[in-house]
UniProtKB/TrEMBL annotation:
Keywords attached to this entry: Hydrolase
PANTHER family noted in UniProt: HYDROLASE ALPHA/BETA FOLD FAMILY (PTHR43194), PEROXISOMAL MEMBRANE PROTEIN LPX1 (PTHR43194:SF2)
GO molecular-function term, one example from the UniProt record: hydrolase activity
Presence of keyword Hydrolase: yes
Protein name from the UniProt record: Alpha/beta hydrolase
């Protein structure tokens, strides 16, 4: 399935220090808005299966790049969950789509959760895919360690090796093209600098502190083999217990189950979106 089927060149949301690139599927549809946001290091083509499926059900679907990623500008001076969450809120307002379903992967899930806590009136539901709603073990010490590790000239190769390990299980259709686009960003000094800043400056602590404020219904989608967690099922259960989420554990998938197992994830998200839209 071609990700850009029926979608023109990227649109741009203007922010104070730059522009956020996004695609809009089903621009003429009258259905509710869904906003999809990928994780750090990835791009909006991560949603090449889910976005068209949501649009086929009548949703308008905006799929963004993170700050400094994909086709977004590299001129931003702030990165991370809160900055990205504020971009999601601005995009919902720009598209006059409140309340919207937010679909976030990894750090994008944290940003979606922050937006739901910050502006509950704008968020009808959350789909959290491979979510980081708290810092991994090591926290600030790990971020400090990453700073020299990700410096040039060795940093891009190290990051390339790490990203390749996030897909245990099935290799998704179109993966070679998606991976090529992700890796191409590591060769651009400006874009790599933005990606490195995102990885070394982002803390999920502000999101963790606000989980009790999330009122929107949520679906957690976690790959059973997600290498970012020692026990992915336990992490999904931790999130479930804090925000009352439903949980879908996806076999034969790592950190990107929406890419690796669209046969399981897409129907589950469509069903959840329908329940949310009915209120």
């Amino acid at each position: 399935m071609a990700f850009n089927h029926g979608v023109a060149a990227p649109r741009f949301l203007r922010r104070q220090r730059g522009r956020i690139a996004y695609d809009l599927h089903g621009a003429d549809h009258a259905g509710p808005l869904a906003v999809c946001v990928p994780g750090m290091g990835s791009t909006r083509t991560s949603f090449r299966f889910l976005a068209p499926a949501l649009a086929a059900r009548g949703h308008r679907v905006a799929v963004t790049d993170l700050r400094g990623h994909g086709d977004s500008d590299t001129s931003f001076d702030v990165y991370g969950d809160e900055a990205t969450g504020s971009d999601l809120i601005a995009l919902i307002a720009e598209l006059d789509g409140a309340p919207a379903l937010l679909v976030g992967n990894s750090m994008g899930a944290a940003a979606a959760a922050w937006a739901a806590a910050q502006r509950p009136d704008l968020v009808s539901g959350l789909v959290l895919v491979g979510p980081f709603l708290r810092d991994a073990r090591g926290g600030a010490a790990l971020r400090l360690l990453l700073r020299p590790m990700l410096l040039r000239p060795w940093g891009p190769a190290l990051l390339r090796s790490y990203l390749a390990k996030l897909y245990p299980g099935r290799t998704p259709e179109g993966h070679a093209e998606h991976e090529a686009a992700v890796l191409a960003a590591l060769r651009s000094r400006d874009r790599y600098r933005a990606i490195r800043r995102t990885m070394t400056e982002t803390t999920h602590a502000p999101v963790t502190a606000r989980l009790s404020e999330i009122a929107a219904p949520a679906l957690v989608v976690m790959g059973e083999a997600d290498p970012d967690w020692k026990d992915p099922a336990a992490e999904a259960a931790w999130i479930r217990d804090r925000i009352g989420a439903e949980v879908l554990m996806v076999p034969d998938a790592g950190h990107y189950p929406h890419e690796q197992r669209p046969d399981l994830v897409t129907p589950a998200v469509l069903a959840f979106a329908e329940r949310v839209s009915r209120g």
